[in-house]
């Protein structure tokens, strides 16, 4: 359910997502498009449709329900559920909608096998291994027992074996990536030795850009880079992610423009006091629109190609910016919270830095606003 009845519009350029997909595919291997959480706020169905049109044959969503929504919309590609079955009804969705759940423990496998036997169906699964995240997954020592068990279980078909990198986007931690890669290779070898055949998948976006040569394996799961963020922006390895195109921008409207004399304060708590005579614009955006209050006195918007600083606290639906010297500004004018023209454009990395978060969260939150696909 999007945020309703506001003036923000989040615009998505699906052609840029497709261009990023093509760019990532050029690094080799199968690219699984990660479109969990409503495609990181970019729109599940619109994103999947555009990528399927570009030849993508495998998608990764979050919950089984998200996968079922994608299947019901007519998607015929492989749909992986990264969260796997959490509730009993998820098992039914997985079987009926032909989803491929990530499975992280023996009990889960046993429960799915029971459901398959009851319905007389076969379920495809992806095994998830922990090689360094310590979040979810089987461990290396489970591999022989798993292979034996699954070779004897005709209703469960393993199509993928996966693990997730903890530090792929940190140039100072490439050693840990190599360690995870080596452990994952041993796991895959043990499972194949035990008689299983599957696609191996380790890399996320940063892994594809920096490590695919050494540990690309068969399938790579691309998320944030599809949406145009370079995981190495601002680091010495920035060039690894060159050429990615942002796909999301968020625009709203100016409600009022007025003078703020030197010495006057603005907004709740009087946290900003004008140090000179200023002109301010009051903008229709606030924390109710998922525009974080953490941007108070920190963030910038982009107005006609220029960066304009936020003055005082971000309110529920209004925020003040400094437009001194910009005489042509009028109520009703468009102003960018994300994106914009020229060097003043606000990137997801900029917003994340001011906001104290990562671009992933910026997309998920601004993607809650009414969206247009162009
Ligand atoms: C979200 C997710 C990805 C994608 O990661 P990015 O850093 O966005 O490329 C890959 N694998 C798993 C298991 C994930 O949950």
UniProtKB/TrEMBL annotation:
Chain positions found as N6-(pyridoxal phosphate)lysine: 36
UniProt EC number: 5.1.1.1
Protein name in the entry: Alanine racemase
Cofactor(s) the record lists: pyridoxal 5'-phosphate
Family assignment from sequence similarity: Belongs to the alanine racemase family.
Domain Alanine racemase C-terminal: 247-374
Pathway participation: Amino-acid biosynthesis; D-alanine biosynthesis; D-alanine from L-alanine: step 1/1
Source organism of the structure: Solidesulfovibrio magneticus (strain ATCC 700980 / DSM 13731 / RS-1)
């Amino acid at each position: 359910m999007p945020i309703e009845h506001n003036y923000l519009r989040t615009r998505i350029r699906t052609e840029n997502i497709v261009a990023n997909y093509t760019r990532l595919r050029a690094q080799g291997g199968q690219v699984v498009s990660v479109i969990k959480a409503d495609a990181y706020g970019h729109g599940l169905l619109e994103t999947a449709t555009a990528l399927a049109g570009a030849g993508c044959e495998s998608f990764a969503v979050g919950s089984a329900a998200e996968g079922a929504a994608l299947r019901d919309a007519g998607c015929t590609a492989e749909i992986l559920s990264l969260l796997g079955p959490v509730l009993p009804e998820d098992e039914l969705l997985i079987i009926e909608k032909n989803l491929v759940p990530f499975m992280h423990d023996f009990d889960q496998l046993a429960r799915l096998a029971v459901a398959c036997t009851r319905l007389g169906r076969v379920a495809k699964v992806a095994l998830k291994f922990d090689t360094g995240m310590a979040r979810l997954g089987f461990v290396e020592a489970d591999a022989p027992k798993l292979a034996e068990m699954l070779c004897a279980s005709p209703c469960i078909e393993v199509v993928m074996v996966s693990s997730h990198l903890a530090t792929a986007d940190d140039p100072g931690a490439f050693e840990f990536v190599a360690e995870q890669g080596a452990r994952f290779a041993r796991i895959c070898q043990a499972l194949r030795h035990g008689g299983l055949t599957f696609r191996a998948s380790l890399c996320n976006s940063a892994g594809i850009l920096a490590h695919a040569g050494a540990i690309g394996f068969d399938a790579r799961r691309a998320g944030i880079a599809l949406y145009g963020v370079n995981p190495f922006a601002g680091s010495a390895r920035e060039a690894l992610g060159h050429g990615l195109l942002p796909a999301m921008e968020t625009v709203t409207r100016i409600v009022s423009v007025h003078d703020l004399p030197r010495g006057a304060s603005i907004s709740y708590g009087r946290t900003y006091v004008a140090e000179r005579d200023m002109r301010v614009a009051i903008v229709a955006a606030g924390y109710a629109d998922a525009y974080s209050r953490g941007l108070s006195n920190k963030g910038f918007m982009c107005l006609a190609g220029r960066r304009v600083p936020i003055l005082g606290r971000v309110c529920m639906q209004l925020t003040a910016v400094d437009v001194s010297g910009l005489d042509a500004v009028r109520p009703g004018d468009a102003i960018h919270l994300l994106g914009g023209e020229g060097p003043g454009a606000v990137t997801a990395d900029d917003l994340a830095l001011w906001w104290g978060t990562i671009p992933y969260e910026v997309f998920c939150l601004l993607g809650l606003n009414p969206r247009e696909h162009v």
